[in-house]
């Protein structure tokens, strides 16, 4: 039976906008507005969407880097959303993060050995300095860096090597969940692939649960188990990887997938170009938040927000099109949007 490691229910994070003479609250940025998902041991859930959709805020919220507006976050069966900083401290070991920028993520005044030893000591994971050394060496092996590189400074490494050190630092705490927040976005294409492969290997070796936050669907397609698509602070579709890439059930997902390059020479695909910009999260549109850009928008979409509903196979989508007869639903009457999905 699968073991639930992280469960998020109706998570909201509204940032107040201060203004006026006395700095009073004059509105809110609805960055995350009712997001629910779960991740099991050994599973990767990718959170995807355009820049500004709220996906990184979800990552920071589950890490409790700021107070939540509302909602529940359960880590290994324990609610952490309402915990004080002191009560949360020992539990921080269980959930670690790898950020996008490996250059600013590492303290330039600490050698690699000290960077990796710090969480081991802080969380009391070794009984002696000899054990700290052994654990640091083993972490270097895990991320495929030479053990003697522990005596070097972060600036002596390339971007890809620094990201390996960031991953090793996250693993040093022996976590159950790793949040990868655009962890490969800043890297060159070839290095990107190496880091993704490393993350996959580590995940299966250590049974980690991973929340992989990315705007890059081409990467996500090769390394995830399930995908959650976010638009303007809400999840609009969640499905197992093949189901989502093979037959998206939300027009926004369909448009995102149409922009993913096909690796086969000569393969063609109709690109769906969305009109307009993402609306402001300060004043999200009424009804379906995607209606201002959706090519299939109907009268109902402007008034009524669709609920995220399961099609009976674990594939969830929030779209009124699925209330139409199947023959009239444009999403159900199309060829798979990408080459992969024909496989
Ligand atoms: Fe488009 Fe309407 Fe579906 Fe929203 S509910 S995605 S506007 S068809």
Structural class, by secondary structure, is alpha/beta
Please provide the count of β strands.
12
CATH superfamily: P-loop containing nucleotide triphosphate hydrolases
Mean pLDDT: 92
Reported for the largest beta sheet, the result is: 8 strands, mixed
Spatial strand sequence of the major β-sheet? 6-7-8-3-9-10-12-11
**What's the number of structural domains?**
1
CATH structural class: Alpha Beta
Strand content: 15-25%
Based on Cα principal axes, name the global outline: globular
Task: Provide a concise account of the structure shown.
The chain has 343 residues and is an alpha/beta fold. 28% of the residues lie in helices and 23% in strands.
Q: Can you characterise this structure?
A:
This protein is α/β, with parallel strands linked by helices and 343 residues long. The protein has one domain (4-340): Rossmann fold (3-Layer(aba) Sandwich), CATH 3.40.50.300. It is 28% helix and 23% strand. It has ten helices and twelve strands. The protein has helices spanning 55-62, 85-88, 112-122, 129-142, 159-172, 189-206, 217-223, 241-246, 251-258, 299-303; strands at 4-19, 24-40, 44-48, 70-75, 78-79, 95-98, 177-181, 209-214, 226-231, 234-240, 309-310, 316-317. Strands 6-7-8-3-9-10-12-11 form an eight-stranded mixed sheet, sandwiched between helices. Strands 2-1-4-5 form a four-stranded antiparallel sheet. A hairpin with a 4-residue loop joins strand 1 and strand 2 (24-40). Helix 4 crosses helix 5 and helix 5 runs parallel beside helix 6. The longest helix is centred in the middle third of the chain and has 18 residues, at 189-206. The chain is globular. The model is unreliable at 339-343 (pLDDT under 50). Iron/sulfur cluster binds next to loops.
